[in-house]
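Why do we care about 3D structure at all? Because function follows from shape, and shape follows, mostly, from sequence. That is the central idea of this module. The next example makes it concrete: a single protein chain, its amino acid sequence, and then its structure expressed as tokens.
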Amino acid sequence: MNRARDLVMYILIGICAAFSVLLLAGIILYVFYRGLPTVSWQFLTGVTSSLKGTVGIAGNILNTLIVIILSMLIAAPIGIGAAIYLNEYARRGRLVTIIEFATETLSGIPSIIFGLFGMMFFNQTLGLGYSLLTGALTLTLMVLPLITRNTQEALKTVPDSYRNGAIGLGSGKWHMIRTILLPSAMPGIITGIILAIGRIVGESAALIFTAGSAKARPKSRGGRFQKNLQYGGTMTIKLYLSATSEGDFETAFGIAAVLLILVFLINLGTKRLAARFRAARR
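And the structure:
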């Protein structure tokens, strides 16, 4: 009887796994089928212009990469540092519980609310205006809880014997964290960073309120804080506007195909980086 139940459950689990893989493969193949014919060198390196009759996403690709880099340069050190403090330095108590509850709550807030907050605070209060910097700061708030929680979980997977052994050999607290804990937890930390990048790449609602939707390549301009990047639309914003306002589904599917390739390349690069950390640890 138990063997029959195990066999049934095994078959059901296999069906669920196969369905998930087939669903993902179907979506990717359909997007590539509709989008790859639109992708060309002119499409990737040109800029959309109604006067010239051209369609290009070079500015949108550059804006997307700038937002990713700016957001991760701010969010990754803060998120990893907060996780180290909460997991290694702070004593378990009400304060730590409140902080963890706050991070979990922030991760569930809709992105449109982050966009409204970024527009009111970074845009108007701080005077940054519609800019890629405003969008990056807003996305930093969005992905910070994700990086913090993933880093915490990665640090918790490191055995306590590593900590006790390092301290017993005379290592200082920070030296132990820097040389033992972080290298051991780095694969999990990189996984959190990958998830954060994925959310940044796929975000549009928050950026419409903060970064704008300009089609041109970004430039520098004077501002209240000396120089900040001017407003510009990312690839997801361009995709959204192409599919809704303009009704240009060929361009929308072309951008979707490029987005999938970009996410794949980013994930591949970070996976290789994680593999190097594993090899160095061994």
